[in-house]
Queue: 4 jobs
Job 1
Amino acid sequence: AHAISCLQSLPSRSSAFPWSIFFIIINEFCERFSYYGMKALLTLYLTNFIHWEENFATIIYHTFSALCYLTPILGAILADSWLGKFKTIVYLSIIYAIGQAILSVGSINDLTDHDWNGTPDNISVHIALSMTGLILIALGTGGIKPCVSAFGGDQFEDDQEDTRATFFSLFYLAINCGSLISTIVTPILKAKECGIHAKQQCYPLAFGVPAILMAVALVVFLIGSKMYKKVKPQGNVMLQVCKCVGFAIKNRFRHRSKEFPKREHWLDWASEKYDKQLIAQTKMVLKVLFLYIPLPMFWALFDQQGSRWTLQATAMNGDFGIPLQPDQMQTANAILIVIMVPVVNSVVYPLIKKCKINFTPLRKMTVGMLFASMAFVAAALVQVQIDKTYPVFPAAGQTQIQLINLGVAPAKVQFQPQLQSVDVAPNEGTGYMTFETSKLQSLHIISGSRNKTQPLQLQERQRYTLAFKWNFTSIDSNLILDNVTSKPAEGKNLIRFINNFPFTVNVTMDFKAYGELPPLSVSNYTNVEGLNVPYLIEASLSPYFCTVLSKKFGFGSAYTISVDGCTNFTLDITYFEDIAPNTVHMAWQIPQYFLLTCGEIMFSVTGLEFSYSQAPSNMKSVLQAGWLLTVAIGNIIVIIVAGASQIDKQWAEYVLFAALLFAVCIIFAVMASFYTYVDPNEIEAKFSEEGKKEDKKDQDDYEKEDEADSRM
């Protein structure tokens, strides 16, 4: 009843919402869900599915981001000069949806896995499809970016300013909701296992849902077609500005001789072809664009949330009561934005004003840069703590070996020739020991009354496990190449089983088969999700089964589990920790996300507000294009640093970015101190008044001439 009374009380056309707006808002929600849902997975997809090295994956991620912020210029020109906003949105949305579908198809493991071993047989097919999909997505999302919000604004009449403002609030709420929900949902979908022949992380589903949402976005937008107010293309002011600047430079070069008098501003050389108002407006725009020069450095740091910071989260403990996927940590930014924007606007800024501090927009942007720089210092400190937990793998010329005594008697193992000796207690291991590969030739095992010499032919840069046990007649042993050269990715765990029974057993864990294991043999490592919950381990000891619940493996660990015996149908097992689980909690990333979000609020929100306040009414799109261009250049900076940097330590790269932004922040503060704020409305009013006077003068001259003619 209350809702009906509210609807009945809607007064006039000036406050009524056009029905077409709701199609645009739903379209934006679906499109943002599609984009952010896909982008949240991209870095880990490139490293874990395509198997690219982290630096190269970072380069591709930021190349894609840069393209997404370069193509809006193309979209704006298409919409304003040729196709109009409606057709531009439709055509580019089709390209966008096709790109999402191609990316999803490219992530299907079974597409080229002809031998059913779980690994694509022709990875180049997947790379080609993925890169084609990303290019089409960049063209689509970037191309429609400047069109959708402007098209929504076109649906209102001039006297509907308040209603238009409400629309933009709902529009940006749709953006935030779409990005927040998708960044939570798609990593969960990815974590599920799917596949026809071999179970893998379900990237096809995780990319397929954003593809479906993009198709839904297009369909919803088309449904409202007959309701839309479609403004015809009226020419792109960006092109006019470029032509004006180009002509001024060209004309100045032609008249570089001293015989031509200097003009007050170099743009005044365009006065022979362009009117004074356009030149004055272009001057205002260029004045703001000059201040944009240092801004890309902020975006170089900000956009690393989806690349470097996500990779950092893969080496952390994601147990928040429920397991958090590394790529879900990006939701911290969206959540903090929703919470902090009202707090900053209603509490922080008014307090600063009460303290009589002149906190101008440019000063806010400077402080925003400082916050972003501090965020990367915080990220560096977290990275230092993570690095301390990393296992040390063998370097060139080195080999690592661990000993596992599965027998009931203690043992002494001598590394030959006369390197060292180690005592190994029953059912215990030594952990990995490092040796020079060329010097370690054999092992001599002494246990009880028995001894055995184990010859070694080891490869450098590899880890080995020697499992042995004493029995009444001899010492049995098995040397295993572990084939693990790094910590498990994405917080997963590597689990394998070794059979300590005197007969063959069949081992499963949560119904995943590890195969039939003869005595003292070892299964291959298998990826197990870092869910921090126990798993059901089952051994088939014909004619009966023994089961036990595993320990919680945590995140990023590797274990060898010895299947030792069975007591009252309960399986006896022993854990040997090959790689320790992640101990630095993902919650330690929250301070860096908090600092970066503070920086975003003061820099990004204020920057857009400042740009619009300083731009002439018909030139706001030029500044929007300039702003998006700074984001693209920021991503290009990351590409250059990731490609050219010789820094081995990730914490040092974080410090480098923090130092660069701090230096740029000082430069920006100096530039901002010389900036004089203007009121574009006053300048436009002045030109409008001058135009009226000229029109009146022309009218008076015409009347005088007409009067003179009548006298003749």
Note: The chain has a mean pLDDT of 88.
Job 2
Amino acid sequence: MLIASQMEPTYARRVYPCFDEPAMKATFNIRIIHDPSYVALSNMPAIDVSEVKDENGSLWTVTTFNTSLKMSTYLTAFVICDFDYVTRTERGNEIRIWARKEAIKNGYLNYALNITGPIFSFLEDTLNVSYPLPKTDLVALPDFGAGGMENWGLMIFQEASLMNLPSDEFTSRKAMIALIVSHELGHQACEWFGNLVTMNWWNDLWLNEGLASYFEYLGATFVEPKLSLDKIFYAHVVQPVLREDSEIARSLSESEDKIKGSFPLMSLFDNITYSKGASITWMLSGFLTEKLFIRALTSYLKEFSFSNANQDDLWTYIQMVIDAQDEVQLPAPVKQIMDSWTCQNGFPVLTLNLTAGTVSQEQFFNKENRKSTDSYNNTWIIPISWMRNGSSQPLTWLDKSSKMFPEMQVSESEYDWILLNVNLSGYYRVNYDQLNLKRLARLLENDPKAIPAVSRFQLIDDVFALTDFGYVPIETALELTKYLAREDELFIWNVVLLNLIPDSLESTLKNHEVYPLLKKYLLKRMLPIYHYYAGFIRQNADALEDDYFAQAYLEKLMATACWLGLQDCLDLSSELFAKWRDNPEYKIPFLIRRTVCCYGVAVGSDKEWNFVWERYNHTDSVEEDEDVLLYAMSCAKESWLLHRYLQYGLSDTLFSSNCTSVIILHVVTKDIGHRIAWEFVTENWPLLSQGYGHELLHDVLKVMGRFVKTDVQIQELQVFYNATLEEDEREAITMLLESAKLENIERRKLLIKVANWLEKNVDD
């Protein structure tokens, strides 16, 4: 048994009577009465442990904690557990990490313990503050709703976020632990974020979380210097939120009145708050310079510690630092610049005309489904970092809707090129004119390294996003992929593949005439990077343990090579699979296990399938293994195996452990599996609906939507769900399928364009 609390944002009121608002700070005296075989933890150290008898004469332990510092209700916390801990003292602060006894005994928390102290000290030194509590506990729970929670002095995490097997040298796992720990420590040690200085009200939550996310990356790189911070930051933070932000009608900082109403506070804990907050903080630190940014933060923390602040207070402090020096000149007051980013929805796209040297801005929105009533007249004050022909130029600003930059006019020479928003330092996209794009494409083919890696990543991501939103034709984006045979960065390949072959389209693309062309065009370009990594996999996969991106993205590259039918990839999968079949103790390299198991089954026969089924049934292994095995069995290429798999899925053990739905969802995404899975669901619905309810049907129908192209196909699905769903659910699903159908029709048109372009370029 185990008890732990999570008060943020508004649950403290369910534990004790209080004015549960972040600005109402108080000191807390906590006392917990609990079973003597358990230990009680809270924000402060225990100062007294005594015994008490209840009316039945049973003994209980009473743990009394020291009075807390002045703090917000949402940061109070307690845990009652029978865990063990590992400990170490850093600068007089006793750090303990608590977890299940066997996890402590096996050393699974040693890595987290090794980095917690150094990250603490790094943050204290950077921000010139000292941590005000005598101890810090980190608790790893087997199950927890969030990744981590920054309760002052008692941080709570999911087990997975803190544990690392001592034998696991892979950077990616350590990187994740380092990131989560630095995020929560950022809240602790110092930042305005959260504990010392709290937001006045939840509408400024982004200050808390955006800054914690920014320092999370600085802290993690400090303890794991092998991580290439900027690449990871763009690939994991900026790029995904740019994709999301254009669809979401919410600004970073909403007005206090709006959030005071019946606004669902939990909805603020989203990617806009965390990732957009971090991206904008990164941009701010970039144009101020890190030195001035940290200087301003330090004075701000001193002024507001133990009290509350809002974003304008921070802008005031930054303004004071800017006014006191003359190296950095800003085109407007800090508040005006930052309000344009935090108080408006979305973000800008810059459109260039380099023959004339003009740059204009507008809100980035989807031109395909823009309603004429929408007004998009926002303007931002935009810092532009840029380079010309490989050399960096002084930072410049676009502070109105359009502006002439004579220094950006390009000459007749095709060797004269310009690159904006170098290394994605600003939170926006760039739409180049055809002339400059041609020059950049040519440059990539001749000397890709002339453009920094993060900028190559961004060029490709921007041009595909511009295609999706109707700013430029798909052919423009494809021109930038010609150079890829010379691209050796996995994180760039990853963004190309996510755009060309999204996971959700694999099964539909396979049946389209674009497939053989794509195969020929892409394989030719993938071979160099594929062989580079396949060599490691064959000889010494452990050599990749410091290659963060191999751990994050090699799987997608391999899976694509196999999906495109690259013989060497299929052979490699069979080889490794056979090794594993001959000796179940053999470990398929963790980086590509999912792909190897899948294609081992796909190119094999029922023998391979049965082997995986058998491994699944007597596996004492961790959850990720089970998931890999369940997925692999859905890769079978023979219909009867998939039929049988679904039948097996109805057995009691699988049914009770929620795996039946996992199996169905794996099978329904496969090109030969979607009809089989649909028939199976309709035939077994009475049983399935008891176990899984309508959620399963929703998920299955969502996937079926990828395959509908005609009304007749929708009607066929409708016959079934009209009989099983309530009226409002039926309407929602019908709308979902209608829009899926339109998307599929649009996509067919797009794929015809892609196919035509590939026809012309496939032999280049």
Note: Residues 487-604 form one domain.
Job 3
Amino acid sequence: MALPDSVTTCLSQPVHYAICKLGFEKTDTYDIKNILSGNGEVCWQAVTEHVCYLESDQSVDYTKSIRSLGPVCESVNLYFKSLTKEQFVIQYASWFHWTNCKEVFLEVFDVLQHTEATEVALGLMKLTSCLERALGDVYLLKGNDCPFLLRDLLASEQLADVFGQAVMNILRVFIGSPHGLNLRNVLWHGFASPQEIPAKYCAMLLFLTAGLGQLLQTYLLQTKDVLVHRPYVIFISLEELDAFPDLNNEILSIAEELVKLSSFVLKIMLPFWIAALTAFKQSRYADSVILLLPQLEVGLRLLFTTSNRCPNRLLTAESSALYTTFDEMLAKHLDNEEINQLPVVLEEPAMASDFLWDFLNHQEGPRIRDRLSHGEINLETFPREVANQIVGFAITILCRFSDEDKFSLKEHMVIKPLMNCASCYRSRFHPISRLKKQVLECMKSIHLWPELPTVPEEQVQQIKGLEGNAEADTLILMISEMISQLQHYMPQNCCSSDDPINSVLTERLLVELCDARVCTLYSPRPVLEVVVVLRRISAQCHQVSQQVIAGAGLRYTQWVNKTLRSRQRHNYRRMLNSIKFLSPMLRLILLLITLELVSVHSVCKKNPFDYQQYLKFLKSVLQYTENLVTYTSPEKNKWDETMELTKKTLINLRKINDRKLMLMHLA
């Protein structure tokens, strides 16, 4: 592994030149009055005159534009430094309202007064995040689906219609284009050290944001449109994110020592680590995570490039190539189809990769980096619980790559619980993990059925013209036989020949089966295809359960109040009969899902014919559950049809089981 002290920059030579030198080549002083009117408004025409264009195709000449804008940015920076906070608020605060996070921009002004490099970089990351979100809101005045990538957003016709193409070209010089300064990406992906981001660029973006507010106000007055801000993403079920214990000051103090000694930390990035831990201690949780995520990325990039022997990938690539990000580092294969060696270096690849995939990538996870960097989260209310997990994970990585001789803390009484939590981590947001959660939630719902209010049996029997429970009993017997055939695939302590339904189809069994470790890392496409179908089946079962609970409660109330007509009373009797076999039938399906889930990787490795046959079988079960949703809905109440459909499905299941085409037989 490369020595962290030997890395002096993570910016490639052209990118370093563009950010750190190009905008300083023109040393002439620029008069702020040229771009600032007497009432403090931005003179956009004077600003846009500094954007240069290529003669060949009239596209932006980013090199000449950065060089030309350098003195303008310096002038703006000095101008802001000359203002008091009160003057700035009076002059500019109202122009930041359109961003829906005015306070962030006022904080950036405070940062610029002190020019502390780490704080300037943090301020710029927050500014670009909030600006992107606000521009997306403006986009939705004209368009429907807001582009996910900033570069696509800035290049959109919709924003050009509102602000003008020349104005959008100015923004693209600073952010959003890989050909320009690209300040957002080099910071959010961990390429720039604090000293490599000139404060004047942060000042210029603050100035331009105010100017955009002025332009937008004029546009809204002319069009009578109303700018609507999209709601922020709110983290729910925070307990699902709870992987590490609460971090106290003692742990954080040890972490401050670890960052100075861990080979995971590049020396040039050390100020970011210290600032991140300080922010956490100061309860600035969004700041802490914003600072830390890029450092986790650059640290992992160092491991990735070293273990895969591609040291050049540590640097930002040119605009003609992609740079190495989390997505590639967490992939199974490199772009040349060779095996990614990073998991081997991590020693506990499932832990580290599962955690990172959970918190950063999985669509049903918090996707913290995406949502923070694209401005989807309210920075003022960012939860401590989420920050605690990111910082806790970072500490375990620091400890993993610390020198044992210098810093033997892995067995420390404070650090050891963190390391234990890391080694036991299992994915919570992979589709397989979500399926397990779905199954158990559905089972809890079905377990409520015995508590449903029901009319005494003797009253139900008085309804004339209805047959007894013979058909329902037949279905229950068929389910019992199916369970008996499946028992040797289940733990021995759950088997009972006397009452297989109530002794086997239990919540305890499903919990035990779902607790079995199933590989989620690098799941192949066939596995994910199967899981998609299984999740749909589980969801349909849950909906059936909810409909039965609601319908049974309503019909009981109507029975007691004697508001049921004759036909409705007959239908209620059919519902009560159906509930007797539907409960074990739904539990049987959930059992099949969990048993198949344990072996899902094995069946998908079989030959394509077997796999397609299996998928066809699953889709037939899905069709059954979808029909159940229809038949048990309050609009349909087709209970006789439900019984007949269940009988046919059980016959098919038994045939498939006999031919050994079910997953557990293929495994």
Note: The chain has 31 helices and no strands.
Job 4
Amino acid sequence: IRCWSNIPFITMPLSRAHGKSFAHRSELKHAKRIVVKLGSAVVTRGDECGLALGRLASIVEQVSMLQNQGREMMIVTSGAVAFGKQRLRHEILLSQSVRQALHSGQSQLKDMAIPVLEARACAAAGQSGLMALYEAMFTQYSICAAQILVTNLDFHDEQKRRNLNGTLHELLRMNIVPIINTNDAVVPPPEPNSDLQGVNVISVKDNDSLAARLAVEMKTDLLIVLSDVEGLFDSPPGSDDAKLIDIFYPGDQQSVTFGTKSRVGMGGMEAKVKAALWALQGGTSVVIANGTHPKISGHVITDIVEGKKVGTFFSEVKPAGPTVEQQGEMARAGGRTLAALQPEQRAEIIYRLADLLTDQREEILLANKKDLEEAENKGRLALPLLKRLSLSTSKLNSLAIGLRQIAASSQDSVGRVIRRTRIAKDLDLEQVTVPIGVLLVIFESRPDCLPQVSALAIASGNGLLLKGGKEAAHSNQILHHLTQEALSIHGVKDAVQLVNTREEVEDLCRLDKLIDLIIPRGSSQLVRDIQKAAKGIPVMGHSEGICHVYVDTDASVEKVTRIIRDSKCEYPAACNALETLLIHRDLLRTPLFDQIIDMLRVEQVKIHAGPKFASYLTFSPSEVKSLRTEYGDLECCIEVVDSVQEAVEHIHKYGSSHTDVIITENEKTAEFFLQHVDSACVFWNASTRFSDGYRFGLGAEVGISTSRIHARGPVGIEGLLTTKWLLRGDNHVVSDFSEHGSMKYLHESLPLPQRNTN
């Protein structure tokens, strides 16, 4: 028998067979029966006298939501002592003629002697009010609640244990939320009893062990322990090096230093961990999280059940590899080492990776074949995504050529001086290029993205975290292995990490202390989700690729169909494919217009008519639902405009600032279009498909950015660099440059060092 917090625990409960807890957070959404333990600091107000009503109402709302989803919810609550203390203080103040004290001044009220309030009396005065409050709150959601008070004796007597178990099961069967608390009105005084001394200190019983016991007795799937800290830290919270532990495993407690207990209550984090491990041993999953933080308390319970990365999750299954936090730290350290290498050494790594892509071609294609077969068997990928997933000999050869371009162009990317200024005599300032830090690149169905992005990160000296789609798991694994093999020639294997753990994308986007830039590569929905989820981390990319081609009245007949066919049909799933074709009104019912329509029909492109185009036709194609549609397939919208000015206005209103094209032989019209369209890429008489890092001569790209800050368009090495300032002086101080100082500012521009153009 183990004894924690005065409640005896039998190592393996008699009433429950040994179950198995959830191994991963993502499985918590399957939890059916859940216990929510509300710590004293969660239930009570900051002044430790009375209840935090707003916080409690939010918790009741979340519990009600989960209960109405068909789950079985139970609450182990504190708060009776705090509620009772509030009522008793009020009565004591009134009995001591508080009205007279108010008339004589607020200071006298503060100095009035209030006797020590005995905890059991406070509990007796507060239990009924606390339960009435819960009932009133749950009634708002058409849910009935029932109160159960327990003492230590209820766990000593086997019959009482069975009765308690039966009562709880019957309440759950009737869709009633049991609210359980220790009967503080009759329990022995807590140890040490000095905890009750003073007006501004309250003491309520520690319910951690009670919650764990009930969770295991009731064969609960999940125990959520809410306190006033974010979870379990590797050192006392508040210390400089304290880090939140995402997942805690049995045996890890030996390496953890526990801090002091919370501001109220008898339990500390050590008691919570012991109770959590005992529950975990009994087959109940446990999460310890913060229930007091105003930004998260309104959804902390539902976030935990949804599997989001909140608090500390207790698991018996320890992954074989490092955690994503550890990978982030490894990538940062590896990236700094990578940036310190000579440019020739970084280039040598990329050349080696290019060679491996061709030398290991058969192994790569075999792994890719497994991914394709699994995707086809499961039927979970549309045809455009299957095309993106597929690798071929020609694709690998193109990748190798692109990587060699990157290696050749990266010789002076990091540490390049872009500005030199002489501030004063012997005081010179330089602005030099440096890596951004750690990049997180999230990509779907595109294994060829992995070596491209890796090469760009290596060339720019950045650490890299890669999160690929599970549909390309086999391909990504071998490509990452080859990348690390290339990195190993200069001892920087850790600089590029592939995240293989079951991390949700939303959780990765919260690692603002580990990641400096997020680059999504995938569907517009993926990009929008990441932009929404990223908290404090910049996101580089575009959410949509709504690219336009405008056919002017002076367009060449020979060029029009070639450019439109290539823009739409060469690779319709690409983000730089044509989605909306704008036709000048004067071209309607001309041979050129007929050629365009015939070509699209031959290529089996489904046409959607814009509102204006539809008005010119007796029998028109299906009218477009939205002019802001990225089809990503052999479909496009045709709309009519009256002029190049109207074409520009249409693009600005419905486009995504990605890539837009004009086809015309009129140079003046073309220049107007090029100068006035506010997109990342604007072309004249060229296919939209040229909007690509490889075709621009960048070697490859990490993506196409439609942002107006930092990088725009296809992003190569330059887009993955930032700058820092280096100031070299000789005993210079600012006071020397004051009005009566001995020095004057010069601010002379100095010539830049000769660039290496080899």
Note: Residues 119-139 form the longest helix (21 residues).
